[in-house]
Amino acid sequence: MGIYVGLEAEEYDRVYRDKVLIKRIFHYFSPYNRLMAFVILFLTISSLTYSFVPVLVSTAINNLETNRNILYLFFLFSVILILNLFSWVFNYVTIRYASQVIANVVLDLRRDAGSAVLNHDLSFFDRNPIGKIVSRINTDSRDFGQTVDLTLQLISSLLVISFLLIIMSFINFTLTLITIITFPLFFVLALSFRKIARSKTLLGQRALASVNAYVKESFSGIQIAKTFRQEEKLYTSFNDVNTTSYKVNLRRAFVLNAIFPSLGIIQGIVLTLLLFYGGRGVLGNSISVGELSLFIQGLSYLFFPLLTLASFWPTFQTGMAASERIFALIDTLPLVIQKDNFKPSRLSGEIEFKNLSFRYEESKEVFQNFNLKIKSGESVAIVGHTGAGKSSLANLLARFYEFQEGDILIDEISIRNYDLMEYRKQVGIIPQTPFLWADTIENNIKYGNKKATRRDVNNALDSTSGSDWIKDLSRGLGTKTGERGSLISMGQRQLVVFARVLLENPAILILDEATASVDPFTETRIQDALQKTIEGRTSIIIAHRLWTVRHVDRIIVLDHGKIIEEGNHDELMTKGGMYAELYNTYFRHQSLEYIEKMKQLV
Amino acid sequence: MQKSTTNTINTHYVEFSPGKDPFEKARRKGSRRWILKHIFHGSNKILFIIVLITTIVASNLTSIIFVLIGNAISDFLIGNYSALFFYTTIILLLSVGTPIMRLANYMLREVIAQRMERDCRREFYTNLLGKSQSFHEQQRIGDLTARVTDDVRMLNFLISPALSLIFESFTSLVVPLIYIIIFYPPQLIFAPLLFSILFLFSLRSYVRKLGPITGRLRGSFGMMNAILNETLTGIEVVKGTVQEAKEMEKYYSKAKWYRDAYIDQGRVQAKYLPILFLSISMTLAFAHAIILNFFNLMSIGEIIAYYGLIAQLRFPTFISIFVFAIIRLAITSSERLLELMNRETEIDENIKGIKKVIEGEIKFEGVSFLYPKSKKPVLKNISFTVQPGQTVAIVGTTGSGKSTLTKLISRLYDVNEGKILIDNIDIREYALESLRSQISFIEQDVFLFSDTIFNNISFGKTSSFEEIIQVANEAQANEFIMDFPNQYESEVGERGVQLSGGERQRIAIARAFLSDPKILILDDSTSAIDSNTEDKIQRAIRNILKDRTTLLITHRLSQIRWADLIIVLKKGEISAMGTHEDLLKSSEEYQKIFIKKFDVDISQLIKQKEDS
């Protein structure tokens, strides 16, 4: 569909040929074929009747001028009245059916785009910011719907204009010519205005955006401003930004408001010309008064639809681009693909990475020929510097990403052969930043297991961190957690996630330990929760806590995608290798000795 | 009793005021009065009057054109050749002049509209600056910015196009009718008058029906966005717990709401009756005129002119489809703005209060506090004393009241019961300026402005480059700042350097150093991932603690361990208080932290102390 200026392209964007795009759009309308046929039919009749009224009015005036037949005139009135009534009814039907069709097509688009997105693997979300995906699904589909609506109006306008022009040209060719001679000028003017208006609007939006940004910033930092008593400083800068926005937006408004009067001037000139030539015709008896009145009336019938037409083209382009973007989203294929759908009963949790090679992008190898075997029920801590491949290991095990070579065997069966849903049900994942839904604590704990009862929830809490901390919250289990859990503390969010995972009772636990600091009381609880959650299941922990590395069965030291050392804390410390170095870098400050020596440190 | 109420109405406390506020009274009289006050504020009223006059004149000109066309046609019919040139010239002048008049009209109304936006925004912003911290803590930033941009913009749209179009509609409803009465048989007013009445009634019901539907559309669209946003933000959890289908269902049900609202909107819009009334009235009017023609009361030219005048009613008919929706939205928007601006705030600048250099002794005497509109006290009967220069560590879980306690000291909130004394003087007796300028705050999520590092450090006090470097050194920040390509001139934030939590904290410490406060409040929840950074943070904190009274909210065991006084808060009450050694002996909860974390027993902990 060509190039649409000002729209940023995404990785999954593709360019559809016009024919393909139209075909896709028609495909979405096909379930509503019958309704759509009604819409088109009534639209046409409605436009016809609408444009017929001025013709009848002029006929009436003609009759008045010539043979003055009152019965004929009465007949004309009745016809006009009926036409008006019909025109309104047809218009009513058109709008009703059209809105039904559009609403349903938009809904279908949203459904398809939404489920396409939900089925993507995580690499898709790494590449595409969520805000943009959401706006594609919701806003682009809305824009598309509006475009369809506009297209219908456009068709109606075109029909009215054509009908009128055809009739008018039969009546008087010269006057018709005078009327349409300004059309090109009209279009050029309207389009060039649009161009200027667009650039001015862009400036206006930017100015407003900077006001927005400034306000956001000053109220985010209001406490600082208040404690330092610097309100005046904020006020002055705000005034600058606000005044700039005023000036820029006023200029924009001036341009936008010039268009109608300018077009009005054209209309005025045409009116004068019509009156001059038409008047001459009347005086020379070559044209009737009724005909002249038709042209004068017609002027207002023509100019309004013309305006719609002129302003329509860019909107049409936007709508087509919007549909193109949604289709691109729907058509992108997920990368993680299962080869079979083996449904395991209960996994025992034995894991083997076999000659595994993996990379997120070409030429940046994360693992090459990686081998690791984890026994059923074993707890393993993974340590290493940033970029060593710790999270990649967890991501692959959760099947969030597709690996390139080798294999991952779970209970001696390739991870690719499981039914993905069934497999994931037996894998518990605790991400580094705990994510909670804007819901109650209870519903958050039940998220993976909707059938759980309140007693199950309490049990899960009891067997992780204890449930007494919940009672201290304002509404207990019914306490709202806010967006992403923002209403409760980071530590409490972690506790909720532990309970959630325990309720799922997974065979394999993947835990990326949080690095955020937590108050000492909650920290103690998290330790309890961790200890109890890893019991009796295979656990892979990306460890950041000194306590964790000291308590797991085995520590794996990763460096650049390779295993450098293995063993428990004491063994590795006495060895004095990479682990001892990592300890000194990441864990030393968590030790009791460090705290006790604090006084001397400074 | 009566006296005290009048008193509270007349004194509206503000923490900041840049000058006289001309809209203060109008704000309290409701949105309509407030909007009117803005429209007629200063030179706006002259512009407004000019806009009204030009609208009326333009409408008159349009009507005159039709009368003239009618006259012209009458003259043509009797073969008056000389009239041709006269009429064409005059119609040309008028039909070109009218748009030009309109242009001027539009420009002026835009000036009013844009001024309205600018002034309301400034008023709103200033007003918010004057509100207390307790107010700001209840606001969500996204909501505030939405009000400052979108809602204020709606007031712009209220003037242009909404109010001006309504006025234009009204004149093009009335002026043609006057012309009809003046130039043609008065009885011809029958059809247009009938239309006007029907129009007003059906319009009212149309607007009433459409309003709630528009609200539903906006609401369901917002929900669709919110749900999808949340689902995709938590996509890892969705996939990990296999809830894709349920999430899709959640979204789909909201999308269906949207569809239903859209269809309902179509139904109401389709049923817009004024269009039907107009076409029927026009036909009736036409018939009426023709009947008069048979009685020789009207010429053909006049019929055409009359029909042309009636056709002007189209403008109000079509414009009303959308204009009233804008008015509705604008009123709602202005109510949203006023709602916040009229919220009372309780803390005053207290310009006449005590101004003195403080020593730094802090005393809480039976302090209780609850947030406005809440019933559950956050702090209950808190009493303790801190000597000048001491360091106090406040520990407790989230919600125990730690940060609220510290915020009371600089009067970001006022206590409900008991009192807080600094140097034995109630803090409410100090001038706000004097009190706050001697207390520094380093908050949990350090906020830095999108400005250079230099300006961020010197935010509270304009300083020389040497001073800045010195404080940055003390705060252990100089080293990493010098590593940036633009060093102290580096921009912070999206367009500039990205700072880690520890780095932000050290910049905030430098900022606090510069203002050299007597009392420092440090909400220290930053965590260092590596031990080197931890060393630096520890040093920076140690440096700033020296010689000032410090209240530390901290998760760092090392800071707690060495504080002069540790206060353990639980559900708003002091559950334990003392030094590290005291607490190891007296508080089981406190003991547990060390025992669990380091797998030691109590005797080892106490012994360790003796070793050091």
Report the radius of gyration of chain B as a whole number of Å.
Answer: 36 Å
- Tell me, what's the shape of chain B? elongated
Trace the largest sheet of chain A across and list its strands. 6-7-8-3-9-10
CATH class of the largest domain in chain B: Mainly Alpha
How would you name the CATH homologous superfamily of the largest domain in chain B?
Answer: ABC transporter type 1, transmembrane domain
Looking at the overall shape, the CATH architecture of the largest domain in chain A is 3-Layer(aba) Sandwich
What's the pLDDT, averaged over the residues of chain A?
A: 84
List the helices and strands and how they pair.
The complex is a heterodimer of chains A (602) and B (612).
Chain A: H1 18-29, H2 33-65, H3 70-118, H4 122-127, H5 130-171, H6 173-181, H7 183-220, H8 222-227, H9 231-283, H10 289-331, E1 351-359, E2 365-374, E3 379-383, H11 390-397, E4 405-410, E5 413-414, H12 420-425, E6 427-430, H13 441-445, H14 454-462, H15 468-471, H16 490-504, E7 508-512, H17 520-533, E8 538-542, H18 546-551, E9 554-559, E10 562-567, H19 569-575, H20 578-587, H21 592-601
Parallel strand pairs in A: 3-8, 3-9, 6-7, 7-8
Antiparallel strand pairs in A: 1-2, 1-4, 4-5, 9-10
Chain B: H1 2-10, H2 24-27, H3 31-39, H4 44-77, H5 81-129, H6 133-138, H7 141-183, H8 190-233, H9 235-240, H10 244-270, H11 274-294, H12 300-311, H13 314-341, E1 362-369, E2 379-386, E3 391-395, H14 402-409, E4 417-422, E5 425-426, H15 432-437, E6 439-442, H16 453-457, H17 465-474, H18 478-482, H19 501-515, E7 519-524, H20 531-545, E8 549-554, H21 557-561, E9 565-570, E10 573-578, H22 580-586, H23 588-598, H24 602-611
Parallel strand pairs in B: 3-8, 3-9, 6-7, 7-8
Antiparallel strand pairs in B: 1-2, 1-4, 4-5, 9-10
Helix pairs in contact in B: 4-5, 4-7, 4-12, 5-7, 7-13, 8-10, 8-11, 8-13, 11-12, 17-19, 19-20
